[in-house]
Amino acid sequence: MSTQDAAEALQEDRHLLERSGTAERVAGILRQRITEGVFLPGTKLSEPAISTALGVSRNTLRESFQLLAHERLAIHELNRGVFVRELTADDIGDLYAVRRLVECGAVRRAAELMELDLTAVEQSVADGREAAALQDWIAVGTASMGFHQGVADLAASERVSTTMRQVLAETRLFFVLTENTRGFFEPYIARHHKIVKHLERKRFDLAEQALDRYLRDAEKQLLLAYQRKGTSGV
């Protein structure tokens, strides 16, 4: 996505700053846009474009960049600026280890709760199917992120949800390896649906098992894509 397109996307978020124009809020917006694939790995985060789009000061924006750097989503390069971080094969393994702990743990926690709201995960499955019908694989990827955030949210813990938002933003940095293809994303739509059906039937054990297999398969697929990228010299 071009700098101009990214700036236009950010202008849609400007209203979110009307009540609280803090660095944390700005960082939250940028984190979400990274999760959605608006800012790809290696993209320079332009101070003039972003500060103008969001209507915030350079100082506030720089504070938000520091927060993103702390979350390992951005990196500051001396005399060059701030860039969306490019991750490594070790990062893939570490992130998916964390995802299995958080998401599978959230399913186990959900089994202990009196109430279970599956609205978010059900909606994400519907969104993914609709995007697939339009062959919009970037949107399918975004729906997938929504699904996994929804799974984490089943734990009914703001700390778990916050952790998941950060982890998913990092995970999205790897999607550039897949070139947003049908071959990568489409099979996971059916797997989302299967997990939701287990949850609807309150078969939390089966949901956890299916989710664990899902995450291990996705990790292997991304590692292979990463290796191919390295071999091709891209």
Radius of gyration (Å): 18 Å
State the fourth-level CATH superfamily of the largest domain: GntR ligand-binding domain-like
Q: Please work out how many helical segments DSSP would assign.
A: 10
Listing every helix as H and every strand as E from the N terminus to the C terminus, the arrangement reads HHHHEEHHHHHH
Structure report:
It is globular and about 55 Å long. A two-stranded antiparallel ribbon has the order 1-2. The chain has 234 residues and is mainly alpha-helical. It has two domains: 3-84, Orthogonal Bundle (Arc Repressor Mutant, subunit A), CATH 1.10.10; 89-232, Four Helix Bundle (Hemerythrin (Met), subunit A). The chain is built from ten helices and two strands. A hairpin with a 3-residue loop joins strand 1 (74-77) and strand 2 (81-84). Helix 1 packs parallel to helix 3 (47-54), helix 2 crosses helix 4 and helix 6 (119-133) packs antiparallel against helix 7.
Task: List its traits.
234 residues; mainly alpha; Arc Repressor Mutant, subunit A; Four Helix Bundle (Hemerythrin (Met), subunit A); 2 domains; two-stranded antiparallel sheet; 2 strands; 3% strand; globular
SSE blueprint:
Layout: H1 3-11, H2 23-35, H3 47-54, H4 58-70, E1 74-77, E2 81-84, H5 89-112, H6 119-133, H7 137-153, H8 158-172, H9 182-200, H10 204-232
Antiparallel strand pairs: 1-2
Helix pairs in contact: 1-3, 2-4, 2-8, 5-7, 5-8, 5-10, 6-7, 6-9, 7-8, 7-9, 9-10
